[in-house]
Design goal:
The chain is an alpha/beta fold. Helix content is about 35%, strand content about 15%. The chain has helices at about 100-110, 115-120, 145-150, 160-180, 180-185, 190-205, 215-225, 245, 255-260, 260-280, 290-305, 320-330, 340-355, 370-380, 390, 400-410, 415-420, 465-470, 495-505, 530-535, and strands spanning about 20-25, 35, 55-60, 70-80, 90-95, 120-125, 210-215, 230-240, 310, 315-320, 450-455, 475-485, 515. Strand 9 (about 310) and strand 10 form a beta hairpin.
Length: about 550
């Protein structure tokens, strides 16, 4: 799910708005639509964008009115390096909800997809409707106003007073979103993103869809499969978001953040981090201060009453309290490549919250990991892009009960259960729904084998959802990646990468129940060649 923000914005230059070629209504039950004509152009003057092409097209805002108002969809592609052997286009989604696919592909496609995949496919990323450069669903008239409003909200509430303030702020934010972009939110469902993707498939000339989805992108894949089961060539889905949990179609009356079990997933990752740290000896900074678990727990306890003020490189101040620390830890569980810098940061906070270090607090400099995290957190277009669950998933209808939900979640998964239980609180006050949203049932009729990856210790899409997700498909081949992190088939396991490449290029899926190992263990030295892979945790949501 979405926690990290893309560091930089990338320009989309070429546009094409002509609409041609009528299309007959599909299994999705929509009236006749039209296939947008794609005209690819450059992506701007930046040298790193030279290998890529960009375009934007218009699709129906409401598929019940295919000739009515339109929505802009921004795309990018890395053209196949061996056009003579080209199979077609490979569509991708980095997760979210709200993850922009254009910068995702422009930053990772040349590094993390195999040479054979890059030779045989045009690799395509697109910003889903309401996201990035695709008519973003914004919540305030200007970015500055939104930044000011969000900056006043804590990462998550801890005390009763903070809970009351947080609920009030969530209600205000929901009202702002609802009044600023109602036309975009009412057509923002994943089902409409799937319909857009099917039009894009036709626009690039592919008879069937080849697709890789990560995290929330697995939910998009499941939705596409339900709507267009006969249009699938190959689906590879990593980091499974179980549709019945996310949508609430199983009748579970809990906040969406509780339903998707992220608190439990993060708690498992926390235990793994501590265990691997202890085994790593001097490679993990916490060992120099004592038992890693004791050091970490004591530090978190002290941060509840003793926030630490740090100085950023530009001289500004940044306060780390308990909630900020928990959020920082959660995000660093996304990749075991980040474990060493997470340990360094906790060790620094441990020293600064120690009474003996009181004199040093005023002059403490923020570690680089916290500097980067703070900068990324502030660099986004609109938090409205994360509001998709509000228009398509079921809510509790009991916003004032969130403190009780949080207390119960904290008992099951200390620290992280409370944090994740507040996900979606704004949806309780959001009055808009997309009538075209899909709410199940989720079993589908895709005949082709589907490749499903699950990482054993995934904080965001817990491994326990992998087999139930695979069971939704007539022929799913589940692969377990033994390791740590979120959606780790991308840049984390050569074994998984080989299986993905063979499946997409040859349509040869591995046996169900296959197991892959990750290429490295936490706290192993990071080879220079793998530094680029580490940055993928900034992109998968």
């Amino acid at each position: 799910m979405r926690q990290r923000r893309i560091v930089r914005r990338l320009t989309i230059a070429a546009t094409a708005f002509a609409l041609v070629v009528p299309v007959t209504a599909s299994a999705a039950g929509t009236p006749k639509s039209v296939v947008p004509k794609l005209t690819w152009g450059t992506c701007g003057p930046a040298p790193e964008l030279k290998p890529f092409q960009c375009a934007s097209v218009e699709v129906p805002t409401d598929y019940d009115r295919p000739h009515g108002p339109t929505t802009t969809i921004a795309l990018t592609r890395l053209p196949a390096s061996d056009p003579a052997r080209k199979i077609g286009s490979l569509f991708t989604n980095p997760g979210g909800p709200g993850g922009p696919g254009v910068p995702f592909i422009q930053q990772i496609a040349q590094v993390l997809y195999s040479p054979e995949l890059r030779a045989r496919f045009d690799i395509i990323g697109f910003d889903p409707r309401g996201v990035g450069a695709s008519d973003p669903a914004t919540c305030y008239p200007t970015a500055a106003e939104e930044q000011a409003a969000i900056g006043a909200i804590s990462s998550f509430p801890v005390t009763a007073k903070e809970e009351r303030q947080y609920i009030a702020a969530a209600a205000k934010f929901a009202v702002k979103c609802q009044t600023t972009s109602p036309d975009r939110f009412t057509h923002y469902s994943t089902a409409n993103v799937a319909r857009d993707m099917d039009l894009l498939r036709q626009a690039v000339g592919d008879q069937k869809l080849s697709y890789v989805g990560y995290s929330y992108g697995t939910y998009l894949g499941a939705t596409y499969a339900k709507l267009f089961p006969n249009n699938v060539r190959a689906l590879a889905l990593d980091g499974t978001l179980l549709p019945e949990w996310y949508s609430g179609s199983n009748g579970e009356r809990q906040p969406v953040g509780v339903r998707i079990r992220q608190g439990e997933g993060a708690s498992d990752s926390y235990q793994q981090f501590l265990a691997e740290c202890k085994k790593a000896g001097p490679a993990c900074a916490l060992n120099a201060l004592g038992d890693p678990r004791t050091v970490s727990e004591n530090t978190l306890a002290r941060l509840k009453t003793q926030p630490v003020e740090l100085t950023l490189p530009d001289g500004s101040k940044f306060t780390v309290d308990y909630a900020q620390a928990v959020m920082f830890m959660f995000q660093h569980f996304y990749s075991s490549y980040s474990y060493p810098e997470l340990a360094d940061t906790i060790a620094m906070l441990a020293n600064l919250t120690n009474p003996a270090a009181a004199k040093a607090k005023s002059s403490a400099k923020a570690p680089q990991a916290l500097v980067e995290w703070n900068r990324r957190k502030e660099d986004y277009e609109s938090a409205g892009s994360s509001m998709q669950p509000c228009v398509e998933a079921k809510q509790t209808g009991r916003p004032l009960s969130y403190p009780a939900y949080a207390d119960a979640a904290d008992q099951r998964a200390p620290h992280f259960g409370r944090f994740r239980s507040w996900v979606g609180i704004q949806c309780e006050f959001f009055g808009l729904k997309d009538s075209d949203a899909l709410l199940g049932p989720w079993e589908n009729k895709v005949k082709q084998p589907v490749l499903v990856f699950g990482t054993r210790h995934d904080p965001a899409t817990p491994y326990q959802a992998t087999r139930p997700f695979a069971n939704l498909w007539p022929d799913a081949r589940m692969v377990t990646i033994e390791g740590w992190g979120h959606s780790t088939s991308l840049g984390g396991s050569k074994c998984a990468d080989q299986l993905l490449t063979k499946y997409l290029t040859e349509l040869k899926a591995p046996a169900d129940g296959t197991t892959c190992q990750q290429d490295r263990k936490p706290f192993d030295p990071l080879p220079t060649a793998e530094v680029a892979s580490k940055s993928v945790t900034n992109l998968i949501r």
